[in-house]
Amino acid sequence: MGSTLHIELNLLFVHPSHCRHGVGRMLIDWGIKKADELEIEVVVVSVPFAVPVYSRSGFVCDAWIEVDVIVEETSEQWKEWAGEDLRAVLMRKPARRVTSGLMNDRPEDRDRVEECDVREVDCMASGNVNDA
């Protein structure tokens, strides 16, 4: 990211009882609206199962980040978590320019969503709470 001005969406969660009701999308849209007003991009570091949610909102994958989970003393719970996909995904939604009241995407970013390993995950079945 360097010194590029951006808004970072940080720690978005939706309670499981509110999944699939648009709550996550509303939180994401709020951040996008703020960035659009400032004409700057939005970034988020996501977990893999939430990539589809951000992708549907126009975010593109910039990088997959491997997380080192090796520690000297581990509990059984930690060992269980270490077996899961603990990668992080750096995603961004390019800045939109406001011209005569219309928003304009940057053409070079329109097709990049296909670069993500996008897979749908049922948030209730997986126990993950930040899938919208």
CATH class: Alpha Beta
User: CATH fold name, please?
Assistant: Aminopeptidase
Widest sheet: strand order? 1-2-4-3
- What shape does the CA trace take? globular
Helix content: 25-40%
Please provide the ordered H/E string of secondary-structure elements.
Answer: EHEHEHEEEH
What is the arithmetic mean of pLDDT?
A: 75
Biggest pleated-sheet summary: 4 strands, mixed
Beta-strand content bin: 15-25%
CATH architecture: 3-Layer(aba) Sandwich
Ends apart, CA distance between termini: 26 Å
- Going by helix content, strand content and strand pairing, the class is alpha+beta
Total of helices = 4
Rg computed from alpha carbons, rounded to a whole number of angstroms: 16 Å
Number of domains: 1
Got a strand count? 6
Poorly predicted residue ranges = 106-132
Give the CATH superfamily.
Answer: Gcn5-related N-acetyltransferase (GNAT)
Please tag this protein with its features.
132 residues, alpha+beta, Aminopeptidase, four-stranded mixed sheet, two-stranded antiparallel ribbon, globular, disordered C terminus
